[in-house]
Design a protein that fits this description.
mainly alpha, 364 residues
Length: 364
Amino acid sequence: MKLNRMASLKEIDRNVLTNMAAFIIVIAGIKTASVLIVPFLLALFLTVICMPLFALFRNKGIPQSLSLLLIVALVVGIWALFIYLLGTTLGGFTTNVPLYQERLRIIIGECWSWFAGYGITLDKSLFDDIFDPGRIMRLITGMLNSLVGILKNVFLVLLIFVFLLIEVSTGMPYKIRAIGDDRKNALGIFGAIVKGVNRFFTIKSMTSCATGVFVYLFLKLEGIDFPALWGMLACILNFIPNIGSLIAAVPPVLLALVQFGPGQAVITAIAFLVVNTVVGNIIEPKVMGRGVGLSTLVVLLSLVFWGWVLGPVGMFLSVPLTMAAKIAFAEQESTRWVSILLGSDKDVVEYLQRNKNINNSKLL
């Protein structure tokens, strides 16, 4: 009996090590092939977003070819609008960067003198190196150029998007049903992933647009240069969980410091905090209901992980990718424990209640 137990434990350890090795190999392959995988993932999630619109056109009796043409025209139009607005405003910002650098250098010198006036001795070379105006402005410009570069990589994404939309609207459900037996419920998994990701993107798009509009209106009233650029940046980076809103706030706050001084920079920072608190912590949870079904720690770790594997696009897609993995893991008994680890506290409570293991009042 004891020997059988030891053999069973060795078999479990062997399986765990095999699965871990396979996981590492797969992730290494994805990272190596990220140049090809990133456009495919963008096209895939774009397809998921557009599927309800495609179904609506079909229910209205619009021919499939015309529906496809209308959706592609809409996507290309929105994409082109973003590229145009970002490109034109970024050009004006880049032109003014030397002026901003000089003004920021003067402010940093005044800060060093202020510290020195109170007897706080700082190494001026180290101070200048940390708060180098040129480096700060290069970081901001580089971030904006990277964003424009992602949006310009449109041809391959749209090509894959068109074929994916055709495939999903015709034969994909039947293929999934054919390769998955009733026990695995492959079609159900596919439907659950599509529904969850689509709901997340729909709500996140609305709240991100609201964030961008609020930021634009405030910066416009405040007189900050290029408010449309910072509004679009706030809208796009709002898709990145936890740190996206923080990154979006840095350039306008620095610009407020350069244009109007420390007082206005503090007001701008408070305004960003209020907008993101109201939209992200009050409006979005109420609209989204139970949220994305992921724990806060998992959201942060998924941001770091997918950002490392896929680059900046991985940061944008970190939540939907992890949501899809969680839904898929939940459908299999052998991997359900992974879904539970990824899930929120409410998911754990519901799972335990279904299994009649614990009372709700003992956890909440």
